[in-house]
UniProtKB/TrEMBL annotation:
InterPro entries: Peptidase_S1_PA (IPR009003), Peptidase_S1_PA_chymotrypsin (IPR043504), Peptidase_S1A (IPR001314), Serine_Proteases_S1 (IPR050127), SRCR (IPR001190), SRCR-like_dom_sf (IPR036772), Trypsin_dom (IPR001254), TRYPSIN_SER (IPR033116). Its EC number is 3.4.21.84. GO terms for molecular function: serine-type endopeptidase activity. This is limulus clotting factor C. It catalyses: Selective cleavage of 103-Arg-|-Ser-104 and 124-Ile-|-Ile-125 bonds in Limulus clotting factor B to form activated factor B. Cleavage of -Pro-Arg-|-Xaa- bonds in synthetic substrates. GO terms for cellular component: extracellular space; membrane. One of its GO terms (biological process) is proteolysis. Disulfide bonds join C5-C15.
Length: 331
């Protein structure tokens, strides 16, 4: 599979060519998620009153994580609608209701294409899946934020080159796609926040993931139909967190699941993410904030029974994320 097409090209010549590397046409390029928990007492990282995590060197990290993380404009707050059962048949969202959604893109000889999802943590920092950054050199990638319709230029869009990529040191060691996380430092002064570009909040370290919690995944990924390209417009859907015993069942994923992963969706099939959604946010509303609980990682197929989407458990990686942000600002 040496050629990668988004589905919008007028000619196969406009697709990614072999010299770029090998593309990955599996379900490993998935999405993001927003969950609902009845936890009124949870602190949210990124706010100045949050206690330090494990080390005392993260003053720079506290300073750059926005106080108003996980919020959207008041006029947009009540325009959100219920989503259809799965992203592959997902419902278009109201523009601006997921302002932390980013697109990791790849340059081609003609134009750029959407490659993976990503999520905004600060004006300078983007989180995504490590496997999304394995195929090309750093210069081939860039980040777009503030986008809604990928085929229509919008005044909210910003595009930024990448200064540094931090891949988790234990990525894919032991179990395949374990520790599937990467932090991106943007070049220059970074993002200009607006109604359409904002940061998500980080959860506390060791956050408990409650089975049945209803969550929202979003992205420009495929609708799951054979030969389908990526979606033009940003879509989203709700999926529930699945318990660890259910996800580790032999007929689901068995021993392929590490402690840094969790799965979400419908074991009957239907609710799922698909190609092009990897690296996007899995976000839960807590205390009127949207909090990043996961990053879309992998799965088997799209919407298949007993094969739900698998997500990197962000709550297990808070120290790593904060320390990498600190390192990037000290570099």
């Amino acid at each position: 599979d040496g050629v990668h097409c988004a589905g919008n090209e007028s000619s196969v010549d406009n697709c990614l060519h072999q010299e770029w590397g090998q593309s990955d046409c599996k379900h490993e390029e998935d999405v993001s998620v927003v969950c609902s928990l009845d936890t009124d007492e949870i602190d949210i990282l990124g706010r100045k009153n949050t206690p330090p995590i494990e080390d005392v060197t993260n003053n720079l990290t506290d300073d750059i994580l926005p106080d108003d993380c996980g919020t959207i404009d008041e006029e947009l707050k009540y325009q959100t609608t219920d989503f259809t059962p799965k992203v592959v048949q997902g419902k278009e969202i109201t523009r601006g209701t997921i302002p932390w959604q980013a697109s990791l893109r790849v340059r081609t000889s003609i134009k750029s294409i959407h490659w993976c999802g990503a999520v905004i943590l600060s004006p300078l920092h983007i989180l995504t899946s490590a496997h999304c950054l394995q195929d090309y050199t750093k210069s081939a990638y860039f980040v777009r934020v503030g986008d809604f319709d990928t085929e229509v230029p919008e005044d909210s869009e910003q595009e930024h080159d990448i200064e540094t990529i931090y891949i988790h040191e234990d990525y894919s060691k032991g179990l395949r796609l374990s520790n599937d996380l990467a932090l991106i430092l943007l070049k220059g002064r970074g993002l200009q926040f607006s109604s359409y570009v904002r940061a998500v909040c980080l959860p506390p370290a060791g956050t408990v993931y409650v089975s049945g919690t209803n969550c929202t995944i979003s992205g420009w990924g495929s609708n799951g139909k054979p030969g389908a390209g990526f979606s033009r417009r940003l879509k989203a859907t709700n999926v529930p967190i699945i318990s660890e015993p259910e996800c580790r069942a032999p007929y689901v994923y068995g021993d392929a699941l590490s402690s840094g992963m969790f799965c979400a969706g419908d074991l009957q099939g239907g609710s799922d993410s698909c190609q092009g959604d990897s690296g996007g946010p899995f976000v839960c509303p807590i205390n009127d904030r949207s909090v990043l609980y996961g990053v879309t990682s992998w799965g088997h197929g799209c919407g298949r029974p007993n094969k739900p989407g698998v997500y990197t458990k962000v709550g297990n990686y808070i120290s790593w994320i904060r320390n990498k942000i600190h390192d990037s600002l000290n570099g």
